[in-house]
Amino acid sequence: MMDILAWLLPYKGALVLTALAGFLLLDRLVPVAKVRGGLMRVAKNLSLAGVNAVLSWAIVVPVSAIAASHALDWRPAWWSGGQGLLLDMLLLDCWIYFWHRANHVVPMLWRFHEVHHLDTFLDASSALRFHFGEVVLSSLVRALVIFLLGVPLASVIAFETVLAVVSMFQHSNVRLPRWLERPLSYVIVTPSIHWVHHHALRQDTDSNYATVLSVWDRVFNSRSATDRTPAMPIGVEGLGDRGLLELLKRPFTPR
After folding, report:
1. DSSP letters of 127-150?
2. How far is CA 205 from the centre of its chain?
3. Model pTM score
4. Res 9: pLDDT
5. Are 175 and 31 in contact (CB under 8 A)?
6. pLDDT (tens digit, 9 = 90+) per residue, 179-236?
C-alpha cells in the first residue's frame, strides 16, 4: 500500500488540475445546456477551491494521516494489497453517501453544504465549490471512519483522487451520447444523475446522494425519478447565488 501512496501522492495535484482543465474545456466545446455565469462564476468557484486546497494541506491531510497511523489494527491478512484497496474505496464511497445525505438532513450541516448548491449553473468548477467549514467537518468525521475501519492513508489518497475526477465529470456540462451515458449510469454517477441532485426543486435536491458508484441510491431508496433536461433550473429552490464573501459568511448568518 505504501508503494501506491508513494506513486500517487506526487501526481495527485497534477492529475486533478489536468482533469479540471479538460472538463472545463469540454464543457464549452460540447455543452448540454447553454453556459451561464461566465468566467466570474468559475473564478468564484475556484476561489473557494483555493481556500480549501490550503486547508487540505493544513488540516485535512494531517488529520487523515494521524487517524490512519493510529487506526485500529483488526484487519485479516487478506484485507491488503489490491483487493484491500478496492474494498477500502468501496467502504469510503459508502461512507460518503451517508455523509452527503446527512448534509441534507441535519440543519447545521446543510448551512455549510448549501454553499455548494447555491451555484445556479453546473460545470467542472462546481465540483470544487464547497465552504471551508464543510471541508473541515467532513475531515473530522472521516478521521473517525479511518480510525475505526483501519483504513490506510494510501487508500484515502487513492479514493480522494478518484473522487475529485469523478465529481468533476458528474458536475460537468459535457454532452455525452445516450449510448454511453446510459450504461455508465448503472455503475457510476453521471451528469444526468447528478444534475437532478442540483435541480432547484427541494424534492430532487434531497435525492441522488451517491458520489462515485450509483448503486447506493438504488440500495437505500434515494434515487429520483426525474430526468435531466437542458433547461432544468439549477440551485436552491427560492434562492439565488451570492458573492464570494457572502458565501463565506452565509453558514454563520442568522436566517
Report:
1. GG---HHHHHHHHHHHHHHHHHHT
2. 15
3. 0.94
4. 60
5. yes
6. 999 999 999 999 999 999 999 999 999 999 999 999 999 999 999 999 999 999 999 9
What nine digits make up the cell of 221?
431508496
Cβ-based burial of 248 (10 A; exposed 0-12, middle 13-18, buried ≥19): middle
Contacts of 124 (CB under 8 A, 6+ apart): 19, 20, 23, 24, 27, 168, 169, 171, 172
Q: φ, ψ for residue 249 (rounded to 5)?
A: -90, -20
Q: What is the CA radius of gyration of the chain?
A: 18
Query: What is the helix (H) or strand (E) element at residue 158, kind and residue range?
Result: helix 153-171
Pairwise CA distance, residues 16 & 12, whole Å: 6
Please state, in angstroms and as integers, the Cα–Cα distance from residue 105 to each residue in 108, 111, 142, following that order: 9, 11, 18
Single-letter amino acid, residue 58: A
> What is the C-alpha separation between 111 and 250, in angstroms, rounded?
7
pLDDT of amino acid 36: 85
